[in-house]
Specification:
Helix content is about 45%, strand content about 15%.
Length: about 260
């Protein structure tokens, strides 16, 4: 299949779009797709650049690793060219530091938008920020050699790129605490058993498995998928009775739309 012209290609991030499917690729395999503020800005831009026709977004990393996490250059006094170092940020005001971290987090928030379903295709290392980026997606298909780890605590930090909420939701508080506090590796079998991975496949079958899942997701009408995702996203914050009410309202909208009676 001929390669697609990228909609975006900057700072280690490529975005391509083919009909209803967008692919975001971490494209710096020489550094194991290590992350930086510039990469986070590019990921944020990729989310904003998605055409309205896109229904599924696939996130992948080139090379042997999905993402080895934060580029350690961030902790050097010089930081990245043209960027304030993390040490410089720490010397700023609380408000400035909070605002900067919030900007970093924007790269991790758009993957759960109700109008798309996002799939992380993960092989090799997904460490720290890499783990959190995989957690930012709705679904994770992983290769047998996957190694998840949350290493922030070993650096004296906390996971702050939106990964804690989905991690607790997937594996529960106690296991999430143990994974984060120890920084240990979570391998494929445990990832599948605990719900971190929807599917584990041999490395050479990863792309095919993601294509099959994408096709299955596209088989249902878009509006039904959007409504269903919204129902499930809100379920944990609703009581049983409130969820019943939400289901009735969503179904009424779908029935009216199918009958041609929607506004």
């Amino acid at each position: 299949m001929a390669s697609l012209d990228p909609v975006l290609d900057k700072d280690g991030v490529q975005l391509t779009v083919e009909d209803a499917v967008a692919t975001v690729t971490l494209a710096n395999p020489a550094k194991r797709n290590a992350q930086s503020p510039a990469l986070w800005r590019a990921l944020t831009e990729a989310g904003r650049a998605l055409p309205g026709t896109v229904r599924v977004v696939v996130l992948r990393g080139e090379g042997k690793s999905f993402s080895a996490g934060l580029d350690r250059q961030a902790f050097t006094p010089e930081g990245f060219d043209g960027e304030p170092s993390f040490l410089d940020l720490a010397r700023g005001s609380d408000a400035d530091l909070d605002a900067e971290i919030a900007r970093y987090q924007e790269a991790f928030t758009w993957w759960r938008r109700p109008d798309i379903i996002s799939i992380a295709a993960v092989q090799g290392h997904a460490i720290g920020a890499g783990f959190q980026l995989a957690l930012a997606c709705d679904l994770r298909v992983v290769a047998e050699d996957v190694q998840f780890a949350m290493r922030e605590t070993s650096l004296g930090l906390v996971p702050d790129l939106t990964g804690t909420h989905p991690l607790v939701g997937l594996v529960g508080y106690a296991r999430a605490l143990e994974i984060c506090a120890t920084g240990r590796f979570v391998h494929a079998a445990e990832a599948e058993r605990t719900g971190l991975a929807n599917l584990v496949v041999p490395n050479d079958e990863l792309d095919g498995a993601v294509r099959d899942l994408t096709a299955a997701l596209l088989a249902a009408p878009r509006d039904a998928t959007v409504e269903t995702k919204a129902l499930l996203q809100g379920a944990s914050n609703r009581s049983y009775e409130d969820q019943r009410t939400a289901e009735r309202a969503a179904q009424a909208r779908r029935l009216r739309d199918l009958a041609g009676l929607s506004d």
